[in-house]
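re the bet — no i am not wrong, look at it urself. input seq straight from the record:
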Amino acid sequence: MDGKIANPYVRTRFTCRYDLERLFKARDEVDATIVGAQTVIDVDGTYTPKSGKQILRVLIDGAFRVPLESKFFASPAPALVAVTEKAPRSKIELAKKAGIEVMEFNGQVDIEALLGKLGERGIRKVLVEGGGVVFSQLLSTRGHSYRTSTYPSRSSSTGVHYCP
């Protein structure tokens, strides 16, 4: 979830344990995960499979806002950050020295070009974990197949509830 999808006034859990189990299983079935900067800032997860399988984790962060100290970068799994000229050059250099791959784009991160470059590396299946900006860009691409999941919710005076 990111700020454009989640209710900004209520702290919500992403989903129930059954859907979390499905998410963890899905991570085992892909070659890479793709996630946006705001989602990583809000959730601060590793985005890795529970099994220990090493998949590429791709962060779309044009301005490189995610701190290098985040859990995303602390994981031993390989990481790639897609940035633009808005990213501080010094942070890009620090990331590269830490073994983080950086892919630079002009203007904005072109998700179709990013997917093409991942495909050239043999990455065929990706799991897009959020957020709203990344999803909307992904849906505007052509020549890719998608499987989406939505989570039922209901609202009450105590917040938003997911799953039974």
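see?? Strands lie at 32-36, 56-60, 79-83, 101-104, 126-130, 153-156, 159-162. told u. also The chain has six helices and seven strands. so pay up
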